[in-house]
């Protein structure tokens, strides 16, 4: 598949599921709950393989085309952030091996948030590696139930995945250290109650860059924030999360969706020798947060008019 085709696929992946039936609205003015068939098609489109790549320093992309998995390598073993869907675990395994690493050297499995497309592969990946699963307390609960009772209005058959047990719970500001690498957990609830943003430093061309692996902050389509909140406190959580993310030092940012951080476009620029690395993009980070805040405020306003 050419780079242009890959970029086009990423763009398709970015369409929020609600756009599938954007013309219809629920009585509250919110988009209707996503349909099973449309959601399944979207999820399936994210599962295609894409060549694994080194992104910057010791950070590698080993995910599927639409869903990120990051391998952070160290001399003492590796850290895997997000395992994709249960079905894409073999693809991640192949990606790790193609880059010359061993899945058996993965010591920690981390997650951005406990939805089927990001932690659905945790149980299978743990069986393959024997690695410790690390999670926030709230996402550990969702993980233990295999996503079954998430507040999201997505069809349960799509949101459920093989349950997994967290071996280690991280609280705000706690870190995971391995082989000279430290990943710090920042609790950023909203998209799920336990959504977690991870930060680390990376060495890039003799410069230390501050990296943010942000968790999703999109409002799950058809979720009411105020009128009928299935997640009481969601408004306060989103406000606090947005403020926290805006204050994080960030040179490089990655997201649970490869398309969201324009991975293919930035890789193409990297291959052309662009310096500094195109992944150094603090302006893009602030733009993403501003857009997320706008979406949040727009929905609050919409619900206030009801
Ligand atoms: Zn999600
Ligand atoms: Zn997702």
Model description:
The protein has a single domain (3-11, 25-35, 50-304), classed as Metallo-beta-lactamase, Chain A. Helices cover 33% and strands 20% of the residues. It has helices spanning 3-14, 36-45, 89-98, 116-119, 122-129, 137-144, 156-159, 234-247, 263-271, 282-304, and strands at residues 53-56, 59-61, 70-74, 77-81, 106-110, 132-136, 168-170, 175-178, 181-187, 196-204, 207-213, 252-254. It has a seven-stranded mixed sheet with strand order 1-2-3-4-5-6-7. α3 (89-98) links the parallel β4 and β5. α8 (234-247) packs antiparallel against α10 (282-304). The chain is globular, with a radius of gyration of 18 Å. Residues 1-25 have low confidence and may be disordered. Bound molecules: zinc ion (2 copies). The site of one zinc ion has 4 residues, from loops.
Structural class: alpha/beta
Top CATH class: Alpha Beta
Proper CATH architecture:
4-Layer Sandwich
Percent in helix: 25-40%
Terminal CA distance reads: 47 Å
Count of separate structural domains: 1
CATH topology: Metallo-beta-lactamase, Chain A
- Helix count? 10
Strands, count: 12
What sequence of helices (H) and strands (E) makes up the elements? HHEEEEHEHHEHHEEEEEHEHH
- The overall average pLDDT, rounded, is 90
Q: Globular, elongated, flat, extended or rod-shaped: what is the shape?
A: globular
